[in-house]
Amino acid sequence: MADMEAYLSNLQPDLLNMTRLFQLPDRVWEEMELKARAEEGLFRARVRGLGLEREKCAEIPGDTGDERLTELHRRRCARRLCRQTLYELCREATGMHPPWGSLTGIRPTRLLYEGLESGLSLKAAAERVRRDFDVTAEKAELLREVVETQSSLLPPDMGQADVYIGIPFCVTRCSYCSFSSGEIGDGHLVEPYLDALEAEMREGAELLRESGLTLRSLYMGGGTPTSLTAKQLDRVLKCMRRCFPGRVETTVEAGRPDTLEREKFRVIRAWGADRISINPQTMNDETLRVIGRKHTAEDVRQAYAMARETGMDPINMDLIAGLPGEDTDMFAHTLREAEALRPESLTVHTLAIKRSSRMQQTGEGLPEGGMVSRMVDMARDCARFMGMRPYYLYRQKSMAGNLENVGYALPGHACQYNVDIMEEHTHILAFGAGGISKRVFPEEGHIERAPNVSNIEIYIEKWREMAGRKRDLFLPRENE
Ligand code: SF4
Questions:
Q1: Whose CA is nearest to atom 8 of ligand 1?
Q2: What is the pLDDT of residues 430-439, one digit of tens each?
Q3: Ligand 1 atom 2: the closest Cα is on which residue?
């Protein structure tokens, strides 16, 4: 590590996340001091602050024979040492034990898969994560269960690709939303958007054929695809089916109950979607109003009844723990209602306030972590009671209590696409505004991306450019 000083300054954002884990204000850094050096085959890190001092060392990883790889290993080692030293100091100073310990900025399941690859049993790999990162025993067990459930799904296959189709319109914008979707308004952008999307899908179908990849799953998300009219939905699903034929898992997000009607379910079924998602987020009317969703709990009940009547299942349900003004009693009410609606899968998000959300702009703070942690536990117990098992898990920045989002499903109802997108082990061809196509290079352990623009108007104008980016990603020209 040639320049330790420069390296430490690059680490700063990462270290800020670490002190925030302990709910420490960023100004603690005014009196915090972190120093790292390399000597006699060891990295040494020393942190001073919060009235304490801590020093740790780690062996510098050996030369791999590949200069780039050796540097990468050494940087990782130094980064981890600095983070760990800081973590231990904060833990001692505050007496807090964050549920995921010092784990930030890395997918927890990835660590388990790394353990499995190195020959450990699943149980031993989970135990190693618990020990190395100070993760609580409960979260380590959750991780173990998730990876165990995933072992019954399709394994990664570099000859396959998932297809994502984005419909970036919603009837109104939820206050916590950070997606690039726009309010549908008078709908004047919808038809030009669908023209562009269909053209991009047709080019994508050609690309899929030329690249020799086979289809693994289809996912139509957004936004809210069902904010389209039944006729528009019919048009776009028909194009999707023609471009990407084959009997694969097909999901359509029918997120907002206020967009649902019988005819739309009929159309979704007619084009072979075998999984939908109807998302109340909460079953408390006052909260629904506060977060800007123009529907009631009764609309959710009716939407589920209508979906079942039209033969639509399985149905996934999304809930959020920690919504503004909610306490554990209100969340318990939501869980009881969820149970009565008998979804085949349940995704429990922890409220996160992202930069582009209205909540962030209005200065809304996150709820108290301990309460949200109890809600998350209640949801886990409820999912278990319904016979579900956790099958995917991810964490984001700015989540209440630094917790997690977990997808639970009844046996046979886990969504392959959700696992693929979170584990990042499968190629993805994404169409529409805001979609991000990914090509996975498993040998090198890296991913290349081709993002589409998020702005709907620019997408309509420049979809050809996005199609070209995807082509360059999956079929790079010979001399490049
Ligand atoms: S329904 Fe989903 S995509 Fe639409 S505004 Fe709400 S959170 Fe955002």
A1: 177
A2: 999 999 999 9
A3: 223
